[in-house]
Structures are given as C-alpha cells and as structure tokens.
Amino acid sequence: MKKLGFIGMGNMAGAIAQGIVKSGFLKGEDIIAYDIVSSQLDKVKDLGFVIAKDEKEVVCESEMVFIGVKPQVVEKVLEPLIDLLKNKALISIVLGYDYARYQELLDSSTRHIFVMPNTPARVLAGMSLIEETHSLTLEEFDFVKKMFSSIGEIEVVPSHLMGAAGTLSGCGPAFVYMIIEALADGAVKEGVPRDMAYKLASQTIVGSGLMQLETSLHPGVLKDQVCSPGGSTIRGVEALEKGNIRATLMDAITSAVHYK
C-alpha cells in the first residue's frame, strides 16, 4: 500500500509530485500515479513512482488519493471510483470543486479536502491555499498541511475566500512571468544580454517579495525607500502610473475571478 496515489499528472500535479519528493517529504516509492496521457508520467518515472495501469489501481493501492485532473472531466473520472473511495481520504486540486461540491459527488464515508496550490511548488516555493472546511481526520489534515508546507507556504482559508485568494496565488505566477519578461525586454532594449536580463529581473522580484514578507512593511513604504527625490526610480514609477499598472493588475485578478 502506497502513502499517496495521484490521479492526473498535469503541470500542477506534476509540480507537486516532484516537489514533495525533492523536499524529502515522501520517497518516490511511497507514491503511485496514473494519467490517461502516458507521456505525462515521464516526469516522475525517474523519481521511482509506481505507474498504475488505471485510476482504480491508484485508489486500491494508496492510503490517500490525490486528484489533479481537468475540471471538465473530474465527474467522469470519479463516477466509477465512488465505491472504491468509500472510507478513503481524497485530496483535490481541481478548480471549482470545493468541499460543498464533493459532498454532492462522493459517498458520505469519503473524507475530502480542497487545496489550491501554484506551480512554484516544483522549486519548493509554492503558495498553497487549504480550504478551512473539510472532512479529513485530524491526522490526515496534519499530513496535508505538512505535505504542502514541504513545497512552500500554506494558508488555511475560509471557503468563501478560496476563489479570490486562489486566483491571486494560482493565476498570479502567469502575471508575474509577464512582468519579468517585460522588465527584461526593457533592459535588452538598452543593451543588456537576454540571459542576464532574465536573471536580473527574476532575482529582483524574488528578493523584493522576500523583503516584504520578512519586514511586513507596506509595499508602498518599500517602494518609497527606493525612490530618491528627482531620481531615476521615481521617473520609472511615473511611467508605470501613466500606463495604469495598478488598475491593469487589479483588473487581471477581477477578470480571472469572474471567468465562467
């Protein structure tokens, strides 16, 4: 019997799977996995995962089941597994399938929890939101918190905030990558080599984020500390304000939250 069984090994589930082994939280041989697209499993074969022949084998051979399939197929995937999941624990990262939704889909004996992670989990720098309402045992809930803590930071979030908060942390990396690319493009325009520009932009964002987290200072205060009177930084800030960067980023979150 394996400790954890993965159904679905897409980008997000794959990042988590690789992260928990990289962190040492679990060994590869503690995990069994299946994906309908066999090539998706290539990313974990070298980690020692057992590759299952189908979803039913994953459920039967694991203590806890982790489901990371696309939202449009989750009910089709779960339907033939309902009986097998009785008296088991299910961890889900499927967007839109929270505690209330699983209460309707699963047998009452199936314990379940909804988590919204993000892809930096692959490099042990993820941000995972754990839905406050769940039906796991205390021991299982502790396991989930420790597992996601091994690949980054966690936050236990009330159900009504999972959508907005999850959009910020889940969609946010894509927005940040666009900012990295744009900052690097600006440097390249001024003659900086491309690889150097990406490194400078990425590390600047990593360092800025860490500084805010460790100091707890308001981002505006930290921004002011970089802006000398009449200097180059405040002129760059002016250009960003003219481009409505704040409103644009706020709109990005709102658009993602209300996508149907």
TrEMBL record:
Q: In which pathway does it act?
A: Amino-acid biosynthesis; L-proline biosynthesis; L-proline from L-glutamate 5-semialdehyde: step 1/1
- Where along the chain is NADP(+) bound? I7, G8, M9, G10, N11, M12
Name of the protein in question: Pyrroline-5-carboxylate reductase
A single BP term in Gene Ontology: L-proline biosynthetic process
The Gene Ontology CC terms held by the record are: cytoplasm
- Role of this protein: Catalyzes the reduction of 1-pyrroline-5-carboxylate (PCA) to L-proline.
Q: What organism does the UniProt record list as the source? A: Longibaculum muris
Task: Report the main location listed first in the record.
Answer: cytoplasm
Q: What is its EC number?
A: 1.5.1.2
Q: By which gene is this protein encoded?
A: proC
Q: Where in the cell is it found?
A: Cytoplasm
Assigned protein family? Belongs to the pyrroline-5-carboxylate reductase family.
Q: Which reaction does it catalyse?
A: L-proline + NAD(+) = (S)-1-pyrroline-5-carboxylate + NADH + 2 H(+); L-proline + NADP(+) = (S)-1-pyrroline-5-carboxylate + NADPH + 2 H(+)
